[in-house]
Amino acid sequence: MKKAAAKKAAPAGKKPMTKSQLVSLLAEKVGITKKQVTDLLGELAEVGYKEAKKGFTVPGFGKLVLVKRKARKGRNPATGEIINIPAKMVVKFRIAKACKDAILGEK
Fold it and tell me: Which region, left, alpha or beta, applies to residue 31 given φ > 0 means left and ψ of -120 to 50 means alpha?
């Protein structure tokens, strides 16, 4: 069900850039090898995972933050039964204002 919703969100006939396409584009633009770009992206992800607890910012894109979710009531869609959903920590990505403005245009 989620895949169908994701397909509807993308403009008709356009697909998101794949990792290999991103690596190729960055390698060409920066003038380094695809292996170096792949290693850089891998290291960036690793640092992000380790630093997310403190807040990890990717300049121009946004930041990873930990958020506490409160306990709440929910409903089992199969049976309609009310269930308790416990409190938990979740990771969120907050988009930077510069990124929003670049993509959507300034208001």
Answer: left
Using DSSP, state whether 6 is helix, strand or coil.
Answer: helix
Contact predicate 48/39, CB 8 Å:
no
pLDDT in tens, the chain (107 residues): 444 444 445 555 688 999 999 999 999 999 999 999 999 999 999 999 999 889 899 999 999 999 999 999 999 999 999 999 999 999 999 999 999 999 998 76
Distance CA 3, CA 7 (A): 6
Contact 62, 94 (CB under 8 A): yes
Q: List Cβ neighbours of 70 (8 Å cut-off, separation of 6 or more).
A: 87
Q: What is the largest CA-CA distance in the chain?
A: 58
